[in-house]
Design a protein that fits this description.
single chain; alpha/beta; five-stranded parallel sheet; three-stranded parallel sheet; 10 strands; globular
């Protein structure tokens, strides 16, 4: 008798704020050596969405400095302004409004409101407050939060277009520390779920995708690598492999061995 096989899944495209994307790897633009390396790593990653720290990047507001948009043009990439470095809802909302002005009415933003400078964990109460205001003002909000399934569900219900739970502290490279929480978030999701923060290497990205996440966002894991362009390629392949594995359905874990070539039914 053949063992019961796990069910395969039907693929679905990644759709964020009404736009469909082929790549499920989103990348940041900070911490690179220069803009040329930023461009090369982004291309190697195959990213279509690139996130930009509005308070730290030049998008044309400083005409005498290199402009990030010269190497990552909005005609080719979806620019995702983020509120990195904000520690209150008021700061975050103000930063998103600034991004909308700089990017000619651009509505898609990544919201993060931090709680303290040591852990960089999100301040959830301030994040909720900022999300409510931004959604009311017509922004499409991708929200960074902790790996709490109840909060993730609430952000989806209030109108965020994607929820982005952390895998581990920002820049830590520790990988996914609580797979069960991420799995619970994915299982209850009404909007795309993308792991954000804590990824360190390709296997971390693959695990996130094998859990059923819709995508992964990373910056330090690529920009901080010995060879950022090489790591960007690795992350691209890991995200693709993890997605394919999730779709195919892995075998169940067993305590004891199960022969690849069973003895039952053999001729000799």
């Amino acid at each position: 008798m053949n063992p019961k096989r796990p069910k395969t899944r039907t693929d679905r495209p990644l759709v964020i704020a009404g736009k469909t994307y082929r790549s499920r790897l989103l990348t940041g633009t900070g911490k690179y050596r220069d803009l040329d390396q930023t461009r090369a790593a982004t291309e190697a990653a195959g990213a279509e969405i690139v996130t930009v720290a509005i308070r730290r990047s030049n998008l044309g507001q400083n005409p005498d400095e290199p402009n990030l948009l010269d190497v990552l043009p909005p005609e080719r990439y979806t620019i995702l302004p983020n509120t990195a470095g904000c520690f209150s809802a008021a700061e975050a909302v103000r930063t998103c409004r600034m991004a909308r002005e700089l990017l000619d009415g651009h509505k898609l933003v990544k919201l993060e409101v931090l709680g303290d400078e040591k852990t960089l964990f999100p301040d959830v109460s301030e994040t909720l407050k900022a999300a409510e205001t931004l959604i009311a003002e017509g922004f499409d909000v991708m929200v960074y939060t902790n790996d709490d399934p109840i909060l993730a569900r609430r952000f989806g219900e209030m109108g965020c277009c994607a929820v982005m739970p952390l895998a581990a502290p920002i820049g830590s490279g520790l990988g996914i520390q609580n797979r069960w929480n991420i799995l619970s978030i994915v299982e209850e999701a009404s909007v795309p779920i993308l792991v954000d923060a804590g990824v360190g290497t390709a296997s971390d990205a693959a695990i996130a995708m094998e859990l059923g996440c819709d995508g992964v966002l990373m910056n330090t894991a690529i920009a901080g690598a010995g060879d950022p362009v090489g790591m960007a390629r690795a992350m691209r392949l890991a995200v693709e492999a993890g997605r394919l594995a999730w779709l195919a359905g892995r075998i169940p874990r067993k305590r004891y061995a199960s022969a690849s070539s069973p003895i039952e039914g053999s001729f000799f």
